Amino acid sequence: MSDVVLNHIYKVYPNGAKAVSDFNIHIKDKEFIVFVGPSGCGKSTTLRMIAGLEDITAGDLFIGGNLVNDVQPKDRDIAMVFQNYALYPHMTVFDNIAFSLKIKHVNKDEINRRVLEAAKILGIEEYLQRKPKEMSGGQRQRVALGRAIVRNPKVFLLDEPLSNLDAKLRAQMRSEITKLHKKLATTFIYVTHDQVEAMTMGTRIVVMKAGFVQQIDTPTNLYNYPINKFVAGFIGTPQMNFFNVTLNKDGQNVTIEFEDKQQMVLDFENFIKCNPHYLDGKTYLTLGIRPDNIVLAERKGKSTIEAVISNIEKLGNETLLYADLADKVNTEESVTNASIIIKVPASDTHQVNDVIHLKFNPDFIQLFDAETEFTVMPFNPSKSFASLKVEGGKMVLFNKTLPLPEAFSSLKDGTYEIEIPASSIVDGDEFSLTCSKVQKVEDDLYLVCLEQDKDHYIFTTSPVEVKPGTKISFDVALEDVIFSDKETGIEPISHTFASDGKFVKVKEAKKDGRGKEVVFYGEVPNARYRLSDVATKRLFAIEGRNCFTNPYRLEYGVKIVEDSSNLIEHEKLGVYKYLKKSYLKVKVGDMINYVDITSYKGNVDDIKISFDHDAHLSAYNKANNVKII
Ligand code: ADP
Question: According to the UniProt entry, where is the signal peptide (predicted)?
Answer without folding.
Answer: none
